[in-house]
Amino acid sequence: MKKWMEHVKSSLWAQASLYTLFVLATSLSVYLMDKSAIAFLLLLASLLLLYYTSFPVKLKWAAAGLLLVIVIPFATSGGPSHESYMEVATQCGIYIAMALGLNIVVGFAGLLDLGFVAFFAIGAYTYAIFATPQANNFISGHLFPVSGSTFWLFIFIGGFIAALFGILLGLPVLRVKGDYLAIVTLGFGEIIRIIFNNLEKPVNITNGAMGLSSIKPPDLFGMDFIFPHQIYFIVLAILLLVLFGVRRLEHSRLGRSWKAIRDNEIAAQAMGVPLTLTKLSAFAVGASFSGMMGVVFAAKQTYVDPTSFTLLESITILAMVILGGMGSVPGVILGASLVTLLNIQVLTDVTQWLNELTAQGVINVPSALSPAKMQRFIFGAILVLIAVFRPYGLIASRNRKEDVEKLKERRSSAAISVNSTNGPSGGVTP
Amino acid sequence: MVSSILHSLPQVLVDGLTLGAVYAVVALGYTMVYGILELINFAHGEIFMTGAYVGTAVLFGFHALGWFEGAGWIAYMLILAAAMLFTGLLGVGIERVAYRPLRKAPKLISLISAIGVSFLLQDFVRFIAELRTGNYIVTGITLYNDNHKIATSSVSGVFGDAFLKTNTIIVFIVAVLMMVGLDMFSKRSKWGVAMRAVAQDRETASLMSINVNKVIALTFFIGSALGGATGVLFAQQYATIDPFIGYILGLKAFTAAVLGGIGNIRGAMFGGLLIGLLEMFAAANLGLITHGNFGAEYKDVFTFLILILVLIFKPQGLLGKAVKEKV
């Protein structure tokens, strides 16, 4: 057995064939069975498995793309619960993007933000106000609701406005250190929620606690995106954009500045990292991811109200980042998926199962203990347990290994090129 | 407009001072822990809430057994003591389990642990309350609920009358007693001196043969007991409690602590009273001043704005001293 395992570890072909077998088996069972959350979860787990295989990186990306674009949508389309599977996958995507945004603020830059859901709310309301007749209340001319085809533009507008608010929040907060920052952002999250909850007078902008309903769905060349299996592809596309951005930013000059500030603010400042600009950019970038997903959320639900944006949501996103590992992109993706699946698939399924058992009289679980109500308990427990026992999360972040030879080569070639342009007497090189 | 603000002023003062006294005592818990560990004890608001529930539960117990029917003050003292003991031990337990292992870890990690504890406590209390009564919003028995009128209108015609319950006076007296007691304790007693020494410099204090762990545990006990006692006062004053009262009240009490200068015990008292007065003033008059456009529902926004403004312009607080950062 051990020998066999080692063989699998060393041979790519063995891994590939086993992996294909796993994907085939799980997707077939999802396709053939009417409703099997376990098969669906296993199918999603194949993405995690992919992370641990030793395929070349490009192949991993290609396989992940294949799974997400073709295999998962197709495998789930077999039964009547197609939409509910796709709903779960869509929610996962939305939360992954938000967790990646929070990861920039908390994980990379080390600024604890407890009001992160405010940016999500700003994005959602940006689309909701203009894609319903609501905007006619304060802009004359009966131009609204805008048509669903502007949704694509609104993704960027939502991201931009959220980023703007991120900077607005960041500006005063920058004078505040670490733990004060947590409190101020907590207050900011509450302020935004209270304002959205009450901004129905003097001018009715948000329609207060009633919320905004019948928001226009996105529309591409006359096709409406209404069902989760359609929204899924929008989320996937944005997620790809976000992921690409995060990967590029992480090792860029800005990304390294974030990490430097996180590890030691004073030392970073002494090394010439501009504190204000770097912190503000962390806030802005993180907020923009959240704002974009807010727009998608509003379009998906076709209904927004202030109760979707409570402190519990902020803490949920924080729990995702902490569980996965602060600053680790694969970790955060895993953390966000686990928490979301737990939240909307596992907890509801277990609750339903317990209710059935109670109805049959096998056991008696009082409704106070029903798992669907225990979110706070579970997220609180995740936060404490991870903080005490595994502060670096499930997949700890690693700094990229620098190839010393390559760096030297690059350096010498750069030096030569500078010398050749400046001529032999060019002593000072930048 | 001015006349109606003046008319409601006596009532605003009474309510504001009562609320402010509650904030002040809760703020003490934040400020003590922050002074000694440089950690915002997020769970402190939930300790306050637990205190409110313990007090109410014990009072329900007394009522069911028919004890102290005639002597309400004994019941009052006993529920205060029970809540203080329970929450004090709870605070020590939380410190031992969730904060002590992280004392050398980055601050962010202990802060996250604190947030986790606060959520755990909220839900724990929620399901115990829901299990026992079927609803987590509990309306308790209130002692000393009779109303008094202060005839401020007889002083000058511009003022209206103010009303208060006997319990309001009790809240105020108990809060003041606790604050004075804590002030005396930290200034006069040997343990108080040790506490201030640890807050100033933990390592040097430990070299002076102060048992740092014991002092920190004691700080948590006292801070949490004060928070729990305030919870009982709150439950008696406002009758209805739910497991989520601690979070927003804790946030405001923290604002009070920052306003007064964090780590400063007298500052926290002053800040608490000020925030209570400002909040009540905003709740009563915000709608009036803005001609009904922004009503009392914005009073929390008002409090948070104060917090943000204080942090921007005077981060050391009104009574605190500015500290230079050491490299």
Report on the structure:
The complex is a heterodimer of chains A (430) and B (327). Chain A has 430 residues and is mainly alpha-helical. Chain A has 2 domains: 1-80, no CATH class; 88-322, no CATH class. Helix content of chain A is 69%, strand content 2%. In chain A, α2 packs antiparallel against α3 and α7 (151-173) packs antiparallel against α12. Chain A starts with a helix and ends in an 8-residue tail after the last helix. The model of chain A is unreliable at 419-430 (pLDDT under 50). Chain B is mainly alpha-helical and 327 residues long. Chain B has a single domain (2-313), classed as ABC transporter involved in vitamin B12 uptake, BtuC (Orthogonal Bundle). Helices cover 72% and strands 4% of the residues of chain B. Chain B is built from 11 helices and 4 strands, in the order ααααβββααααβααα. Chain B has helices at residues 2-37, 44-65, 72-99, 107-133, 166-188, 190-200, 202-207, 212-238, 245-260, 265-289, 299-313, and strands spanning 138-139, 147-150, 162-165, 240-241. The longest helix of chain B is centred in the N-terminal third of the chain and has 36 residues, at 2-37. The radius of gyration of chain B is 20 Å and the shape is globular. The chains are: A mainly alpha (430), B mainly alpha (327). At the A-B interface, α8, α13 and α15 of A face α4, α9 and α11 of B.
